[in-house]
Amino acid sequence: MTRAAAAVLRAACDQAGIDPQGAEIIRVAENTLVRLRGGVVARVTREGQTAAARKEVAISRWLTAVGLPVVEALAEIEQPIEIDGRAITFWRELPVHREGTAIEVADMLRRLHALPSPGFELQPLAPFVRLIERINAATSLVPTDRAWLRQRLDQLQQRYIHLPPGRGVCAVHGDAWGGNIVVTADGPVMLDLERFALGPPEWDLVAIAVDHFTFGSISATEWTNVCQHYGYDVTTWPGYAVLRDIRELRKVTFAVQMAVRDPRLQDQARFRLACLRGHRGPRPWHWQPVP
Fold first, then answer.
1. Could you tell me if 57 and 63 are in contact, meaning their C-beta atoms sit under 8 angstroms apart?
2. How many CB atoms lie within 10 A of CB 206?
3. For the range 151-157, what are the long-range contacts, defined as Cβ-Cβ under 8 Å and sequence gap of 24 or more?
4. Cα Rg for the chain, rounded, in angstroms?
5. What's the rounded Cα separation, in Å, for the pair 249 and 208?
6. Strand 24-28 relative to strand 32-36: parallel, antiparallel, unpaired?
7. What domains can you pick out in the chain, each with its CATH number?
8. 227/105 Cα distance (integer angstroms)
9. Short-list 284, 285, 282, 281, CA closest to 268
10. How much is the pTM?
11. CA-to-CA distance for 159 and 241, rounded, in angstroms?
12. What is the pLDDT of residues 148-186, one digit of tens each?
């Protein structure tokens, strides 16, 4: 954690009446997660994310109220706390847990997508958020690769505008996978609510579909079971390829972004881009995970 993030965390803890001593970093990525005493986890965003943090707290409290298992924002604190343009939120730490299976993710999504709209406004799904920033900052790529990614982004934005009708709109998680729908001894729990939005449920389902058809990380049997548990096969929808291609572009640009920070990831980022450009044969491409 940077000195600036540490100073922000200390100031927020002082304001919330929480002891920051003994803070232990859990993860540093686009946001910083820190374990505090008393089973509390602090989440420190990058600058300019106060509205998103406020949304996450509201969603946590809504899902808790309707009985959907979700990571819980501390109820006794007015959240988020903003310090130097960063938003800090405080959460109950989850007990020991594992990543959810594809079937467990599908079961949770079926419950989520059946919920009525919450009593507050959800913004529309933003499938292209931060993609152009990632591409422009991709200094590990040659200019022609960045130009190709910009063209791909433009094409997909146009295709998304003309997305065919699907199953309507509802509250969607936005980044549904086994790391964000984990399983404790008491069952599955939903977390990482940053991408929650009002949008097509197909967006969440395509996230599972690409694990099978694009990455080969879940078997054909698992995919069949996912469709049976959810009650729908998203690959039969005419708009599937559009959302699949957007998901794949997000995966590529994320790897490119991380490779700027960690040069050891450059080979994986370039491999993903080569796959997308048609230089590595047909799917599945068996991409390696990027931290």
1. no
2. 27
3. 152/249, 152/276, 153/128, 153/249, 156/128, 156/242, 156/245, 156/246, 156/249, 157/128
4. 19
5. 15
6. antiparallel
7. 3-93 (3.30.200.20), 102-276 (3.90.1200.10)
8. 11
9. 285
10. 0.91
11. 10
12. 999 999 999 999 999 999 999 999 999 999 999 999 999
Give residue 107's identity as a one-letter amino acid code: D
CB distance 171 to 62 below 8 Å:
no
Residue 280 tokens read as 């590595």
